[in-house]
Amino acid sequence: MKHRLERVNELLKRELGELLTREVAFDGVLVTVQQVDITPDLKHAHVFISVMGNMEQSKAAMAKLHDNRKTLQHLLSKRVVLKYTPHLHFKLDDSIERGTRVISILEEIDIPPDDTPADEPESK
User: Fold this and answer.
1) Which CATH number fits domain 2-107: 3.30.300.20, 3.40.50.10800, 3.20.20.450, 3.40.190.10?
2) Which of 8, 9, 64, 108 has the fewest CB atoms below 10 angstroms from its CB?
3) H/E/C letters for each residue in 56-109?
């Protein structure tokens, strides 16, 4: 059963990604479907969305997704045949932003090079 849910998640992710590209116009931001987690009863799908833009643009994109939820569910029901059409729950996924921030912080930290060669034990 678990493998079936994973396949359904991947299918929904791909189809929703295509629907967002074709059906919803976002103003100057890149909106992508990062992950979909469907409940075992197939009635609810949590859709994790990544928005490349500032916080205001992210909020606007999420509001647009919530406004278009019923339309997207309807279009999805025509493309993906399941026992139930899942109720879509959009959530902002900021993991890429957090990762980028961590990388930039790590780049700012000036770590002095280690003077001891890796193959020689430290002498005391």
Assistant:
1) 3.30.300.20
2) 108
3) HHHHHHHHHHHHCHHHHHHHHHHHCCCCCCCEEEEEECCHHHHHHHHHHHHHHC
